[in-house]
Amino acid sequence: MNEEIARRLREAAEAHRPDRARVLARVQRGMAGPAVRHRARPFARSGTRVALAGLAATGILATGGLAVAAIVATSSPPATVTTPAIPSPTVSSRQPTSARPTPVAPAPATTPGSARPTPPATSPSPTAGKNQNGPLWSAGSVDPHSTVYWTQSNLVLKTTQPLTSLTIEMRIVQTGGVKNTGTWQTLPSADFTVTAQETDGTLVYRWVLKPGLTVPAGSHEFAAQFNHATGERSAAGDGYRVDAQGTGGSASVRGGFVPTR
């Protein structure tokens, strides 16, 4: 029974289209009608009719609104909003980076007109700072702490075997004001006889290993110090010579002093 009433109300509400403006106009016309002077009863009846008409119009509007609300509440299910699923971006695993290529050494320079590379020199010049002979290797240089009035000439001597005899000479050309100020070496000074004297315009420093002593294999240093005339002094005429004797025989090296600044 209730379902039948609800169905009819829904049909009536759907079919009814109340004109609110028209209803109100009719109510206003009814209220503005001519008053009945002679008969009080019709006036009351007319006022009652007007009131009833207003109530009826209000009831129609209310009933229509309730019917529409009921229809909406019972027949219209709530709209369902479906949010589409957004696929997450696919993160692919990082591929291992390839190893860096091994650098290739550049090909040696070639002499124009020749397909073969130019080989390096196999033996140093006799006036170069570095020289080698047998177990001996030597390098001469001008100490970088030298000044315009004082110089130190250095000699590095390396030997791959013990030496039972060793004589070192450093020759410093007299360029003006050249005068001995001292010597030093990394080997014990008591193992050598050291002298410095000028001969024929050259200051000669000499280290001689004392008899019965041995110079061990390794790297050793010797230095000669001297004053000279003020100014930049050239070591172009200076030089050294090393004569040694070891278990493998005798060996000698010689060279000059290369500026280091």
From TrEMBL:
Region (Disordered): 78-140
Keywords on record: Membrane, Transmembrane, Transmembrane helix
Superkingdom of origin organism: Bacteria
Residue ranges, compositional bias (Low complexity): 78-116
Protein name: Uncharacterized protein
Sequence intervals crossing the membrane: 50-73
